[in-house]
Amino acid sequence: MNRTFRRLLTVLCVPLVGGAVAAAPADAATAVTVKPDPTYRQQPFEGWGASLAWMAEATGGYPDAVRDRLADLVFGPTGLNLNIARFNIGGGNAPDVPSYLRAGGAVPGWWTAPAGTTRADKDWWTPGDPAEFDPDADPNQRWWVDKIKNRVTKWEAFSNSPPYFQTVSGYVSGGFNATDEQLRPDKIGDFTAYLAQVVRTLERAHGIKFSSVNPMNEPNTNYWKTTLGADGNPTGGRQEGAHIGPSVQSQLIPAMAAALPGTTVSAPDETNPDIFAADWTGWSAAARAAAGRLNVHTYGTGNRPIPRDIAKGAAKPLWMSEVGGSWLDRQDFTSMDPGLGMATQITDDLRLLEPSAWVSWQPIEDYNNMKPGGESAAGMNWGEIQVPFDCTSADCPIRTNTKFDTMRNFTHFIRPGDRLIASNDTASTAAMRGEDLASVVHVNPGTAEQDVTLDLSGFGTVRPGAMVTPVVTDVTGALKRGKPVRVAAGKASLRVPARSVTTFVVDGVSSTAAGTGLGTGKPVTFTGVQSGKSLSAENGTLVQRTTDASAAAQRWTLTDRTGRYGSRDRFTIASAATGQVLGTSGGAVTLAPPGTTGAAAEWTLSTTGDGTWTFVNAATGQLLDVIGESRADGAPIGLYRPTNGPNQRWQAVPR
């Protein structure tokens, strides 16, 4: 979750100017060709979501007219159209601790303390004791559950902190040292029992079913710290949070799985891909086995392909389970900067992470906190919707910014069950619905109009009358539907405004063109991005050699063993020279006899659409890697954990 509304590590966009799709002189626009690739299809998309947490706690008790409108804006079909909700199970401070958490951040705990209990009393709670459990807790967040439950198809429960009595410091805002373990080791079982009891209570009371539970949030960070003033009460730390390092995570994850059999345990909900990877590396084998899904946040945007390949190697689904941001250093409801920043974040997350769900942190934020003089002097744009968190009247003002508009270009046209596919253009996201190309969402952050050509030659069927209809969001309006353009000779060209997000709705284009993709059996050379040298099968070993297009030892054929066109399909890779199969044994790369199959000889290939690939071994979860990042001719090839390094990426060249 955000920590003092930290800035995303993304490039800020500049204000939008421009109009709707319209004719303009050819030299007034830049040009880009977008070529979707149906031979590389991600897992079926589970959908779009949000954490309820603070926004639900703050607004669930508002007048009906206000809270109904807010729920419609977030989960309604004309609003953000979300279908995934994450319920925040609060920990709760001791009864004698004065209020100090941010508005909405004091999510109630689900316990009832004996009279006179103080923060010093930390051993009174007994799992399963009905006298010490509050089944009616958190009415505000639960109002949201009832309001949206017919629109939500996936529920996840998550915790930011254990209850105060299960923490080391005795406060839910973190330890006195931000890197000290905060979950008491003797209370791991009690904590998971607490979460399980809340989940089962919510399911029975509201007629919903949680598909997953995550017992931690951004755990291996230095964000969560409690500071005490001279009077002994907290003065610092405005939200629930708990440092939980990988060794304690390794105990917590299996314990959570045991406490809630039949419910997927997701983890670690880490703040960025690099710390996610550090958590995974530090987990025990039991923790890796018990985690049914991997969750990562993208507050740090570097190295997104690492979680992608870790998830593929572990054969586990991956969610981008939280992110938010301002994308402009002032509060502004009309500038396109925030909207373009959000659209770019979504585009990059979907392309580089390949998540099966994308979840916003808080679509609704506190207007009072975001206005000038709130969290910053100039104000900020966290949230797609802003409303005062101290509202008491039915005419409470509700404001949306351009993130609300540009996000709908994605959530209205990429649906649960769609499969995102590769594209050569880093600013575009393409989705298939069954065998049909459904939509392409394109972001133009530049100052010039753009002539976009959709190259649909990768598809085998373009029906007569096939059309592409633009739906444009820019400074002049949101989701403006333009005039359809006919597909001719496998292409459609459209002009989009400067500083815009455009969804191209496609009708009449389907299937994959025959003979395309890596699994066709046609020979391919794989050339290292770092070294410029190619994989070569020589004397039973794998090395890199100066590329020689005529060398049979450098040509490979791929056979899809588990599916067709899926980004998680497993391939066998055979040498065109010897028929030997690329495999692994004893932690090393091998060349196995022709016809060898099985996990050790199967590889999942990943790409960002740029023509380069990583090879993830199905048995080890490790990647094909030039040992020592060598550029030398004849350097050996080995296995290593995902690093997103150029020595692990390979350019595929048909031969």
From TrEMBL:
Which SMART domains does its entry note?
RICIN
Task: Please provide the record's keywords in A-Z order.
Answer: Signal
Q: Does the keyword ATP-binding apply?
A: no
Coiled-coil annotated spans: none
Q: What is this protein called?
A: RICIN domain-containing protein
Q: Which organism is it from?
A: Amycolatopsis nalaikhensis
Recorded hits in InterPro entries, A to Z, give: 6GAL-like (IPR039514), 6GAL/EXGAL (IPR039743), GH (IPR017853), Glyco_hydro_b (IPR013780), Ricin_B-like_lectins (IPR035992), Ricin_B_lectin (IPR000772)
Which interval of the chain is the signal sequence? Answer: 1-22
What transmembrane ranges does the database entry give?
A: none
A Pfam cross-reference name: RicinB_lectin_2
Q: Which domain of life is it from?
A: Bacteria
Domain Ricin B lectin spans what residues?
Answer: 522-653
